[in-house]
Each structure stands twice: as C-alpha cells, then as structure tokens.
Specification:
This is Ubiquinone biosynthesis O-methyltransferase. Its EC number is 2.1.1.222, 2.1.1.64. This protein is α/β, with parallel strands linked by helices. It has a single domain, classed as Rossmann fold (3-Layer(aba) Sandwich), CATH 3.40.50.150. It has helices at residues 9-17, 30-47, 64-71, 83-96, 107-113, 133-143, 159-172, 189-198; strands at 54-58, 75-79, 101-103, 118-124, 144-155, 202-212, 217-221, 227-233. Helix 2 packs across helix 3 (64-71), helix 5 runs parallel beside helix 6 and helix 6 packs across helix 8. The radius of gyration is 16 Å and the shape is globular. The relative contact order is 0.15.
Length: 236
Amino acid sequence: MSSNVNVDPGEISRFEKMAATWWDPRGEMGPLHSINPPRVRYIEQCAGGLKGKKALDVGCGGGILTEALVAKGADATGIDLAEASLEVAKLHGLESGIKANYQNIPAEELARQQPESFDLVCCLEMLEHVPAPAQTIKACAQLTVPGGTVVFSTINRNPKAYALTILGAEYVMNLIPRGTHDYAKFIRPSELAQWAREAGLEVVAMKGIRYNPLLKTASLADDVDVNYLMHCRKPA
C-alpha cells in the first residue's frame, strides 16, 4: 500500500480481524447494528429521501449502512481499504439480494477518478480511525455533486465520551473489542465543522446518537456529547 494513502495499517488490521462478525447483531458489531436504523433515518431526512439517489458510503466495512441505503432506494457504492470486510459485504449482498457496488479504493483516489459524482456521501464512524481526517473530509466534498448532501458521524472528544466509549464500552461491558478507539483521535464538533468548511461545505445541522447498552437500542438525541452526526451541504 502506498505510504501516502491516508490510512493507519493497524486500524485496517484490527477491522480485518473483526470482518467475520460484521453481520452478527450479537457479536462485536452489535452496537453498530443498533445505531444503524436511527443513522439511516437521519441520512434520509438530510438527503430529502434516498430513492433514486446516487450514494457513497466511505469506510463501509461489511456494508451495514450501504445495504440499508440500497434498501431505501439508493444506488449505493461502498468503499473501504479492509479487503476482508469488503468480501464479507459482497457475500452478504449475495445472500440478502441487496445489490450494492463495493470497491477497495481510498476516498482520495475515487475523488480524483469520479469528482462530483454522488448526490449523497456518508462517512460514518470512520474519521476517528484515519491519520488525517481533514483529508478524508476534503475528498468527501470533492465526490459530492453541487447541491449534494454529506453526512459525517464520529465521537466527541471530552471526558464523558472517554468514560462511555472507551472505559465503559471496551473495558467494563466488553461491548466492543479493547483498543477499537483511541481517545486522541476523537473529534470535537467545532473541529469537524471547521474542516468541513475548509473543504467547501456548509454545515447545516448536528444530531447526537444515544445508545442504551442494556436494552441494545439507539435513538437520535439533541446532545452531541458522545456520538454525533453532522449534516453538511455542498453549495450548488
């Protein structure tokens, strides 16, 4: 892999090892299955509907979001650099009959090949896993058609987020594998908003995601203290 690709090999290795459990709602990816429905509802609202939209899922992993976008009527492509995760996504698509396109390609490279090609670009739970998140954000902006929608999600950087996401989820309740998150890579909303604006995007709104580990349910919330989504628009 080229040294100038915006990727942490350790992160790719970690997600490769978890590939087999992507579609097990009782496994390591269980929380992701719980938060996906409210994420999709928010994305659908931001995009003004998904039917007929050309959508891109950046950092798609095993395709949980990508398939959900297709199920809502979008023509969706998922990209990732973890080959094992992409294989799982492709196999699950064959089993489910939900047809999405998957590619092993960096967002930056796809932006060079297909600039301004997608009505909707989603980059969820990924920015906190790359060395240069601002670079990924810029690529997402380049990939979006003028007037198109971009939705990011990540984790806020503050003591509450550390306590819930790392101490609670990884070490106390063992909801996700230890070492999944690095607190130093968490991103404050002000930082994400600044990078989005520097990439030429308009910040429209933000919404938090609240996860209940006991009930294994999730919902949208007004507080963005921990997990949050940011809705951006590329000026027409």
